Every structure is written in structure tokens, then in C-alpha cells.
Amino acid sequence: MSKNLNALQSPTVKRRVQNRDKLEADIVAEAVRVFAECGYEGASVATVAENAGLSKQNLMYYFPTKLALYQRVLDDVLDEWLERMDSLSAPGQEPREMLRAYIQAKLRFSREQPWASRVYAMEVIGGAKLYGEQIAQRVVPLLRKDIEVFERWVSEGKIAPVNATHLLFAIWAMTQSYADFSAQMTLVLGRKQLTRRDFDDAEKLIVDMVLAAVAQPAPAAP
């Protein structure tokens, strides 16, 4: 009897879990934009709820506090950002291909997830007061892992000696600026938004600059 009851309940339970996951994802999607536009202090749970088509009380059933919602937003942002960062350690590729893929992934994140990038940037610019511990625990180990990749390339003679930490900082700054400072860019360019062509041009320039920075010097003429 018990097994039959469980068998009947299982599809219902799965649907409930799926519905909850979808609703939470919808809430987070609205929260990303609100936090990006207003910052943590200026953001309102009521605004997020209204944008998601929920009452404030209903939203707070899933996220009891604004801080819980904010941290979930940043968790999701960091999950995706770190997944793209991890491409440097993929085996079986040469440095040029890996660096090109890394830059492409970072620019694609800026193009596809500009609000997410801005939420993360605002948290860091504000001193990472609400999310600094998570950044330290998750970003720093992956950064060290990527630095080890650069050091291995240098030791194998595949790239010129380079300060990998600052090269990665430079790549982050160049790629993320296309999300975090797009308003300034569009003002300078005289249009409402960045185009795919802008991102293609940025990719070519950034890739060329980075590959030039790690290129081995040509051997001296005999």
C-alpha cells in the first residue's frame, strides 16, 4: 500500500519541485534587473514581486529577506561567471585557442547577461560587504588554478613570461566593461545600445592585444 501511494505521489511531487524551481528562477530573473538598476539599498522586494506578478508575501515565502534574494542572485551570477572562467584549464588546447575561447566567453557573458554583470560589479565596487566571503572562497581558488596554467605554459615555452594575475585582471576589466559601462559607450557611440558588431570588434581587439602580450619574441637573427 505504501509503495503504491509513493508511486502515485511521485509525479505530483516532481511537478511541485519543478514549479517551485521555475517560480524561483522567474523571481531571480526580475531581481537581477532591480538590483542592477537600484543597488542593494535602493532595491525593493515589493518591486521585484510586482515585476514577477506576485504579492510581496508570496515572494517572501521563497526568499524570506531581501538579503537572501540578493545572495541567491549573486550565487547564480557567480556560478555562470566561474563556469566561463574555468575554460582556461580545459585540457588538450594550445594557449592561443584557450585564451581566445576565454575572452569570447567573457564577452558573451557581458552581451547576454549585462544586468547580472552589473549587480556583481556594484557589489565589488561597494567593497563586497554582503558577498565578499563567497567571492573569496570561490573566485580566489579558481584564479590560482588559472595562474598555474599560465605558469605551466611559461615553463613549457609556449608563451612569454607574463604576470598572469594582472593579465587576467586586464581581461576581466576589458570584457566586463562592455556590460558595466555600456551606458557610457553608447553615449560616446551615439546610439541606444551596443550591437553584435561592437562585440565582434571588441573581441578581435582584445584577443589581438592579449595574444601580443604573451607572444614569444622572435629569435634574434644569427
TrEMBL record:
Keywords: DNA-binding. One of its GO terms (molecular function) is DNA-binding transcription factor activity. It comes from the Bacteria. Residues 21-81 form the HTH tetR-type domain. SUPFAM superfamilies: Homeodomain-like (SSF46689), Tetracyclin repressor-like, C-terminal domain (SSF48498). GO terms for biological process: negative regulation of DNA-templated transcription. The keyword DNA-binding applies. Residues 44-63 bind DNA. It comes from Massilia glaciei. PROSITE patterns: HTH_TETR_2. This is TetR/AcrR family transcriptional regulator. Coiled coil: none annotated. InterPro entries: Homeodomain-like_sf (IPR009057), HTH-type_TetR-like_transc_reg (IPR050109), HTH_TetR (IPR001647), Tet_transcr_reg_TetR-rel_C_sf (IPR036271), Tscrpt_reg_YcdC_C (IPR013573).
